[in-house]
Inverse folding.
């Protein structure tokens, strides 16, 4: 029994005793005594630091934890589907909470999934398990042109800006990153003092608004960039082309969440919604993108530089591939975001109906780089609804070197998915700029929870590698995963997602037929 549960039990017991006494001696004003246990419980709620909801909502917040306990028992009855039919239950949400709190995450009575349902997937285990070493899972970022390579964890924090998140949430994530030795992506909102508070590794994301490195007119400012890119905490730089949840839209920070501090960090004016342009002004072509990559690498002193996108028109990405071939400039990494990725604010049409889901986009980018013969020189990061070690392994089977998670990390922070991110009224202090709310999120406790979630998920990833009989992430193959495509048919991932030959896009006669139309239409010096 936890301290919270003990306090609640004691308070309820005292109330029950008082009610019995009042029944025996009704002339006594026992009603006044009923307030004492409630006041003591409320005082405990305000003083404890582990549960943000109780600090914000004393007494009534306990109902949430009662319902959470019931949900754990009934979660098998609430099964949803992701964008292409693979079952995802609320079990994965509970998994993040349990791992963050160091609660045992084993299950009784077997899987909650219907294993004969179309879309069910499983790993092909080995009868000769191995013993993989955690230290061997680090992934090196930085190609031949990079002077300051970075050794990354297989699992890192996906892009979430200060502004979208509260200062305490940013600090807690950064503390977790330092404790667990993984990286935090700043999101396009720039580097804030809260990103630097605990010394966790940072991936600085540069979006179309160039927040933190922009001129008063909103253009890229090389001097400001050089100053901040030189910070020891900044390990890599990511150019954001598009985001899975709202590709082609640009970021949105409502005016209700804009404080003077955020305005100063982003170099924007107060009183208006902060909206990133849909496209970059520093470059207008695939070749220009790669020249910008090379420029940022030089200005940062040789740190790894890459870009992030959600795949849309295939010929546009193939245009980038042709630009790589023509210029000889390679990004150090490419982050592939899936359309199923989350956001704090976006039109429904974009979140539901624009952009390629992660698995298709990841497989395409992996193959395109193979096709021009540079896959071994460019790392791929995958992002989009990743909760568990199986989700990580699935992405790696399709070509990812590492994985970013936003949703899982937010759940570890205490997010309850109230979907109030864009209103400034987040009930857990995670996505609000209201001091009375975000100050109740305890940075020390939540930072440990973020590190716990990361550690437990990496431990599970190691166990899966051992079960597969592998000794490292570089040995993961599509053949390790099988999917039921119908009641009668099962196929391995290497059948569903076949790879093209290395270098086959470099000669007209070897371009695969189903790639020819997009490859021929792609232009290095024009998006269209």
């Amino acid at each position: 029994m936890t301290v919270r549960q003990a306090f609640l039990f004691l308070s309820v017991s005292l109330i029950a005793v008082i009610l019995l006494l009042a029944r025996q001696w009704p002339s006594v004003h026992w009603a006044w005594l009923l307030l004492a246990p409630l006041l003591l419980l409320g005082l405990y709620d305000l003083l404890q630091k582990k549960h943000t909801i109780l600090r914000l909502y004393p007494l009534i917040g306990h109902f949430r934890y009662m319902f959470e306990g019931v949900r754990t028992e009934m979660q098998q009855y609430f099964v949803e589907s992701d964008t292409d039919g693979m079952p995802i239950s609320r079990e994965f949400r509970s998994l993040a909470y349990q791992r963050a709190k160091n609660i045992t995450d084993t299950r009784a009575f077997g899987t909650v999934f219907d294993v004969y349902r179309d879309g069910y997937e499983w790993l092909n285990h080995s009868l000769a398990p191995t013993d993989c070493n955690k230290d061997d899972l680090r992934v090196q970022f930085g190609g031949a042109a990079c002077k300051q390579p970075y050794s990354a964890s297989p699992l890192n924090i996906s892009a979430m800006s200060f502004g979208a998140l509260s200062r305490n949430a940013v600090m807690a994530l950064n503390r977790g990153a330092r404790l667990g030795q993984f990286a935090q992506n700043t999101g396009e909102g720039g580097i804030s003092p809260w990103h630097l508070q605990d010394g966790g590794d940072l991936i600085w994301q540069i979006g179309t608004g160039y927040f933190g490195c922009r001129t008063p007119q909103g253009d890229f400012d090389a001097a400001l960039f050089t100053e901040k890119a030189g910070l020891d905490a900044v390990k890599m730089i990511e150019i954001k082309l598009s985001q899975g949840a709202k590709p082609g839209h640009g970021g949105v920070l409502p005016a209700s969440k804009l404080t003077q501090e955020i305005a100063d960090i982003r170099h924007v004016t107060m009183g208006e919604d902060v909206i990133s342009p849909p496209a970059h002004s520093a470059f207008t072509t695939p070749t220009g993108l790669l020249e910008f990559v090379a420029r940022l690498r030089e200005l940062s002193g040789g740190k790894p530089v890459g870009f992030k996108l959600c795949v849309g028109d295939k010929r546009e990405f193939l245009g980038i591939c042709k630009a790589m071939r023509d210029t000889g400039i390679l990004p150090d990494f490419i982050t592939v975001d899936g359309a199923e990725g989350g956001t704090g604010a976006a039109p429904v049409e974009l979140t539901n109906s624009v952009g390629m889901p992660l698995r298709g986009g990841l497989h395409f980018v992996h193959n395109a780089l193979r096709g021009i013969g540079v896959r071994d020189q460019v790392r791929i990061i995958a992002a989009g609804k990743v909760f568990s070690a199986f989700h990580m392994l699935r992405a790696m089977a399709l070509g990812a070197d590492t994985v970013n998670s936003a949703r899982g990390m937010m759940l570890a922070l205490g997010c309850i998915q109230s979907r109030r991110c864009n209103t400034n009224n987040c009930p857990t202090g995670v996505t609000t700029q209201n001091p009375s709310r975000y100050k109740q999120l305890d940075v020390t406790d939540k930072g440990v929870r973020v590190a716990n979630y990361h550690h437990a998920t990496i431990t599970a990833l190691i166990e899966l590698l051992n079960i597969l009989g592998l000794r490292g992430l570089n040995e993961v193959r599509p053949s390790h995963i099988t999917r039921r495509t119908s009641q009668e048919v099962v196929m391995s991932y290497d059948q569903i997602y076949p790879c093209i030959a290395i270098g086959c896009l470099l000669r007209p006669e070897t371009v695969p037929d189903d790639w020819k139309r997009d490859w021929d239409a792609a232009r290095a010096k024009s998006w269209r």
